[in-house]
Amino acid sequence: MSWVTIDEKRCNRCGMCAKRCPLCFSNRDGVIVAQADETCCNLCGHCVALCAVGAVTHHKMDMANFPPLSKDLPVGSEAFLEMVRRRRSYRSFRDRPVPREDIEKLLEMVRYCPTGSNMQSVQVKVITRREGIRRISEATVAYFQELIARVQRKVERLETEGKEIPQELKDRKAFVDRYARLARAWEMGIDPILHGAPLVLIFHSPPNPSTPQEDCIIAAQTVVLGAMTLGLGSCYIGLVIKAAFDSPAVLRSLELPEGNTPYGLLVLGYPKLKFHRAVDRKPLVVQWEE
User: Fold this and answer.
1) Same structural domain for residues 118 and 47?
2) Does a structural domain hold residue 166?
3) pTM metric for this prediction
4) Residue 266: what pLDDT?
């Protein structure tokens, strides 16, 4: 049985469904025929959304969750650009929890984000418990302490052997030395990783053959912009993701489902700081081919 059926009484033979998805639809002498199954349909739902007369029914999808669209977008380009320019990375938050209903609004935004091949494999771990947030920060600080020591040992060994230190190792040492401040801050009782945020969202995915990393990043950036409409500030924390890829201990501290990979992490909360101006950025480098 086809996953999709067409109400012939409603169908106006416009053929939009067949134009969008010739694998599942065909036009046979003016009659639109649907034959959709797992071999051709990836549940994108476009056949339903394109039908102006409501003749298409997809039996594998929730037909009640195809709301009609307004004629025009509710946000203009200038307003959206201002929103993008208003976005800042916040690392200082008020001691105020984010209501669960607002968190659920953000998660609903993730649900409708695009994914490669419509895999829809993005998962989100929500952490509001302070002990859980501290666990991740502590593991990440420990990783960078060990990373600094590891690089330092390599440098000292080469120096003892009278060998030249490769430029790549010099650059790496200069890079990781910057992370010494993390341990110092941690010892002072400051969280330099997750910044004492009241909410942490981890975007992760089970293995899939398409684009799990890009999917998680798209989802995270959607949340960044969506959070602004709720009065929330956010910040990407790449240090944790970098550490999780290199350290089993950091990956375990995230407590994700077995086999899942983290690709993005956000801290969110009500900002302590208020910006009164947008900020300058370098001109974009663009290559045109016309």
Assistant:
1) no
2) yes
3) 0.92
4) 98
